[in-house]
Amino acid sequence: MPLNGADAAIGKDPAENGNHASHQPNGKVYDVNYEEESHNDINAVRYPDGSVRLRNPNIELMDQDILYHLALGSGSHDLVEMFGDVKFVCLGGTPKRMEQFAYNIMAEIGYKLPCGTTLQDISHFSYRYSMYKVGPVLSISHGMGIPSVGILLHEVIKLMYHAKVQDPVFFRIGTCGGIGNEGGTVVISEEVVDGALRNVLELTVLGKTLQRPAKLDRRLARELKALADPEDPYDTVTGKTMCTYDFYEGQGRLDGAFCDFTEADKMEYLEKIHKSGVMNIEMESLAFAALTHHAGIKAAVICVTILDRLKSDQVLAPREVLDEWQQRPTKLVSKYIKRYLQMKGRLSLDGHGSIAVKSPRRFKLVQQESETYD
């Protein structure tokens, strides 16, 4: 699909990153990169206008699709009216951090709320994730760990489909442990690997092991790196990110409730992954990269280190220092978004996109379902 204007400036059509599954003799299921297949397979992840096509034919057959963990539904809400203008989806760990990001991006792009209104948490009734909309930007908390971000991404990708969003760009903004990088260093992920240095998300589906490639858009990573200010009093680097399923044993920490290895064992492992190019460790990027790649969505991971794991297991920086460090990835993403909107002539936006109820009865039912769904 040809691109024009600012879309071309931020990289190729994300649909070119699609993939699908094939079965191998060993019984495992592997995803295959669409670049190895016919270009026509792009149709599996994009409609002709660039809007997201789901890789699930069941959704089209449903009377309504309830996004339980977002307190939204295709039958209860006018999702096109509410979210059809979205271009950027920014995910981060905590509701408070993403609320602050929403206010920051509002000031950065000159977005103005309608008179007498305030920024609202669209997913308040879910009690699980928080979602704020600032013009073409969604700011959403994803919780902690692969399961939490995986659940969220399934529903956010479906939201993009129902809202007919065209060529969205996803960012994960967060904190991490550095490997050979001092606290406060911004790391832009070029590649994501698991604890065994494999760049796949391994899932068990219907009793079969599926390995889904965890790939990020490298061009997007380069563009973010180019926006880093050389005058910043901290480094902005690119490299591999390791994603683990656990904060303690999975990351080689000695201070968990359980530990069956020594300090020497830990250091040997950390030095090994450091030599392989791993710059940082966190707990969400593997699922984030795998699911966005499978959906054909351009995505990037930008984190700030809060310690160097080659020196310590525990975070010792004062709270005010950590608060400033956490602003560094958001500043870079905000700069990218502002640059894009400037090129499109879309700064100084009027406020719109508030809750649009299509069916009051279904709206109430969705709230009740979201409140009680486990």
Automatic annotation (TrEMBL):
Binding-site residues, substrate: Q251, R253
Region Disordered, annotated ranges: 1-27
Cellular compartments per GO CC: cytosol
InterPro entries tied to this protein: Nucleoside_phosphorylase_d, Nucleoside_phosphorylase_sf, Uridine_phosphorylase_euk
Gene Ontology molecular function, alphabetical: uridine phosphorylase activity
Domain of life the protein comes from: Eukaryota
Residues holding phosphate: R128, R172, I173, G174, T175
Domain Nucleoside phosphorylase positions: 87-338
Pfam families: PNP_UDP_1
Protein name: Nucleoside phosphorylase domain-containing protein
Source organism (scientific name): Leptosia nina
Lineage, highest ranks first: Eukaryota, Metazoa, Ecdysozoa, Arthropoda, Hexapoda
